[in-house]
Amino acid sequence: MVDTEPVGNRRxxxxxxxxxxxxxxxxxxxxxxxxxxxxxxGTGQSVAIKVVSKQRxxxxxxxxxxxxxxxxxxxxxxxxxxxxxxxxxxxxxxxxVMEFAKGGELFAKVSxxxxxxxxxxxxxxxxxxxxxxxxxxxxxHRDLKPENLLLDExxxxxxSDFGLSALTEQIRPDGLLHxxxxxxxxxxxxxxAKKGYDGAKIDVxxxxxxxxxxxxxxxxxxxxxxxxxxxxxxxGEFRIPKWTSPDLRRxxxxxxxxxxxxxxxxxxxxxxxWFKQGYDDRMSKFHLEDADMKLGETGIHRMNAFDIISGSPxxxxxxxxxxxxxxxxxxxxxxxVWTVERVVEKLEKIAAAENxxxxxxKEACGMKIEGQKGNFVMVAELNQLTDELVMLxxxxxxxxxxxxxxxxxDTVRPFLMEIMHKSDNMVxxxxxxxxxxxEGTSSLCDVNTMP
Length: 451
Fold this sequence. Notes:
Elements: E1 16-17, E2 21-29, E3 33-40, E4 46-53, H1 54-60, H2 63-75, E5 84-89, E6 93-99, E7 104-105, H3 106-110, H4 117-136, E8 139-140, E9 149-151, E10 157-159, E11 166-167, H5 189-193, H6 199-216, H7 226-235, H8 246-255, H9 266-271, H10 273-276, H11 305-310, H12 317-320, E12 330-336, H13 340-353, E13 357-362, E14 366-370, E15 376-384, E16 390-398, H14 407-419
Helix pairs in contact: 4-6
């Protein structure tokens, strides 16, 4: 059920993510994530904002899943895959800003009744085009189901939720994946066997289940007893509806082949007579855009999503300056709308006023500052977070001297607090929703639920 209560305070005003996106209604939720409809403040364009709690991820040991999901979504640029625009973060939450699929879940459409063969074929063609594209980029979804297939305003299909996806790099020396995941009714028999599986083969199986559901209006393998359902999957016990055409019947039989070695491949699907009707071969050929964040012409480091989420240093200037992270007493981060150059200039002025020495400097990326006799040491690292925001990471150590002055607390930190971006944390609602989190427990498959 969709919660239509606006996000925000009791007056109903929505929150704003880092001054860039207005947050609207909740449109989906799971154990570790909530998805809101949002609008970009500058353009008014609709977006989906997936909000993930860092604390819940840490407790669930799922930090790696989110990092992998971001890496995967940055790899994929296909008209039938939900596009990730950017990733933002505050101290407690991660925000996936994505393309908004106005048409909702495909599941909601098919739950009202089965589709015609022509409509089933249209969506299946879009699905196979996107899945084949993913496989060519070394990505295996592993949780394909109608709930993870969204529709845009033109009712075109969009694959979402790559939270359980795997990369080619995860394949073990035996050439197989071994992590048990997926949704029971859509899981391939070789996954149940727990002997390893080919990621591409299990995605094809799930696509077969989806095509069956679109054509029949119900699942091929279903039982209130989970073990009975697993036995049916393992043995391939299903009945194709009598209204199914011979060509579609043959394709379904090959898709739901319990033997992964003889199961039809993506390349063979594209050549299948039933599938080929009205299919545009250009749907299988798309250019992979370079989505990685790179050093700009100014040499300013643009922070990537991994750095933001994990809280890792990302561009660790303390190493470049010959320092050891463990030698510093504290590390703090500040987000500012000041330019990198302006922050550096101000820090240099503070150093001069306090008789501190800038002992090392790395272009416009940061600096190391020391006091007399080593009584104060500070390493400041600057990362371009977005086009408008800069993240300043500061490590410092201070020893008592005869003056008893606290350079950090008296001078440096007040300046940093002054330049800190006031919207670093969410305005109401999202940052203080601990009492609203009532989803309860959920299986791993529901961790990253999309709208």
